[in-house]
Design goal:
The protein is mainly α. It has one domain (49-410). 57% of the residues lie in helices and 1% in strands. The chain has 18 helices and two strands. The protein has helices at 2-13, 18-25, 35-40, 51-73, 75-86, 90-123, 131-144, 149-161, 190-196, 201-222, 249-272, 275-301, 316-320, 331-335, 344-349, 358-369, 380-390, 426-429, and strands spanning 308-309, 400-401. A two-stranded antiparallel sheet has the order 1-2. Helix 7 (131-144) crosses helix 11. Residues 417-432 have low confidence and may be disordered. The chain crosses the membrane at residues 54-73, 94-118, 130-152, 252-272. Keywords: Membrane, Transmembrane, Transmembrane helix. It comes from Ceriporiopsis subvermispora (strain B). Residues 100-374 form the Fatty acid desaturase domain.
């Protein structure tokens, strides 16, 4: 019976979604869809932004986070009261305390992630038609979770202009066969892959944990997994970094000052209370929030069924379609993370549309996109493990390439197509 129950649990949470299976089996032909047809399918009223509506969502989110914080400050009292009336042993008392703290850490990490997603919306100026409101909100929201607002906003918008373009995209750059020092495809043997890149599940899990909790900050600090075209020392905190233009300098400095102020606040808070207090109330949920952020941003574009393009194969439409909508954490992702994973394809086509209108945009463009609309209901933790273990490297040549796994095999085949949609330029679609 226990074996059967474990099998049932695994079959529920550890399996490929049906949409993934269909996409994996279908040979890929690069889309030649028109950006004008996609835009014309969306009702004009969905582009309208309401500052009051956006402020309501931000305010609601702040209130919920404060409620979670107040709950956490009462945990010790709650445990003491429970022990007094129920006579719990010290061991059970510790278990109850840990359970309550774990509950706080989960929900507050979800709330911190929501602050980040709202700041992301501000970076696209999607919350208000008034620029300074977007930037003021974005600076506060992103600084609170230690993300340099203006610096990350610049590189993220560049990501939108070159999504899955191997020369232009900003982050989650895949390793190539050459990077991993693998033999050429025509002479590589199964033993070649086994010796060079095959890993034990335990080591894979260790690398995955490091990336999930620390990867985003390492990217900000020294461009880890960023575009390799940038020189060593590239950082989001460096105004002179090649990531930025000279006119961006003041914004980068302002972001650095804000991050410095937040670090000073955390230091003072630690001084007047203690490190354990700040660790439990802020740092633990902050670390878990980074895990959620890396999870959905990685899964948006890193998948065995999604292509990368080089110069001759890429168009804006193809890049925008090289992403996947996922119902990450169901209603939690929709309510707290404002659908950032649910409607990501629509977001790539319409970056300034407010998040609360994107579900309708998704519905409007699905008929136009047809088979090129990528949706995946695979349980998210399994999808994360699948991508981490299957998306190992790409070939160093080719206009359209798919990830290959640790056995050197791509899970999807494609047809070449040199037709390009040049009807609208990237800068017309992704406004600065």
């Amino acid at each position: 019976m226990p074996t059967l129950q474990l099998s049932q649990i695994l079959s529920r949470y550890w399996h490929d979604g049906p949409e993934y299976d269909v996409r994996r089996r279908r040979s890929f032909e690069p889309p030649v869809l028109s950006i004008k047809d996609i835009h014309s399918a969306v009702p004009k009223e969905l582009f309208e932004k309401s500052t009051l509506t956006s402020l309501f969502y931000v305010g609601r989110h702040v209130v919920l986070s404060i409620v979670f914080y107040i709950f956490a400050t009462r945990i010790d009292e709650l445990v003491a009261s429970l022990c007094m009336y129920s006579g719990l042993s010290d061991c059970n008392r510790a278990l109850v305390g840990f359970a309550l703290w774990a509950t706080y850490w989960f929900w507050q990490s979800v709330a911190f992630t929501g602050f980040w997603t709202l700041g992301h919306e501000c970076g696209h100026e999607a919350l208000s038609s008034i620029s300074w409101i977007n930037h003021a909100l974005g600076m506060v929201l992103h600084t609170f979770v230690l993300t340099p607002y203006f610096a990350w906003r610049i590189t993220h918008r560049n990501h939108h202009k070159g999504t899955n373009h191997l020369e232009r995209d900003e982050t989650y750059h895949p390793f190539t066969r050459t990077d991993l020092k693998l033999p050429a495809e025509n002479i590589a043997t199964p033993m070649s892959y086994k010796e060079m890149i095959e890993e034990t599940p335990a080591y894979t899990l260790f690398k995955m944990v490091i990336r999930q909790f620390l990867g985003f900050q390492l990217y900000l600090i020294h461009n880890r997994k960023g575009n390799p075209k940038y020189p060593p020392g590239t950082s989001h905190y460096k105004p002179s970094s090649k990531l930025f233009k000279p006119e961006d300098r003041n914004g980068i400095i302002a972001s650095d000052v804000a991050i410095g102020a937040m670090i000073i606040f955390l230091t003072v808070w630690t001084y007047y209370t203690n490190f354990g207090n700040v660790w439990r109330l802020y740092i633990v949920p902050w670390l878990w929030a980074h895990n959620w952020i890396v999870m959905f941003t990685y899964l948006q574009h890193s998948d065995p069924t999604v292509p990368y393009y080089r110069r001759n194969g890429w168009t804006f439409v193809r890049g925008a379609l090289a992403t996947i909508d996922r119902p990450v954490f169901g209603w939690i992702g929709r309510f707290f993370w404002h659908g950032i994973a649910h409607d990501h394809i629509a977001h790539h086509f319409f970056v300034t549309v407010p998040f609360y209108n994107l579900p309708k945009v998704t519905d409007a463009i699905k008929p136009v996109l047809g088979e090129y609309y990528n949706y995946d209901s695979t349980p998210v933790l399994y999808a994360l493990w699948r991508s981490f273990t299957q998306c190992t490297f790409i070939e160093p040549e080719g206009d359209v390439v798919f990830f290959k796994n640790q056995q050197g095999k791509a899970l999807r085949k494609y047809k070449t197509d040199t037709n390009r949609d040049e009807s609208v330029s990237v800068d017309e679609v992704v406004s600065d």
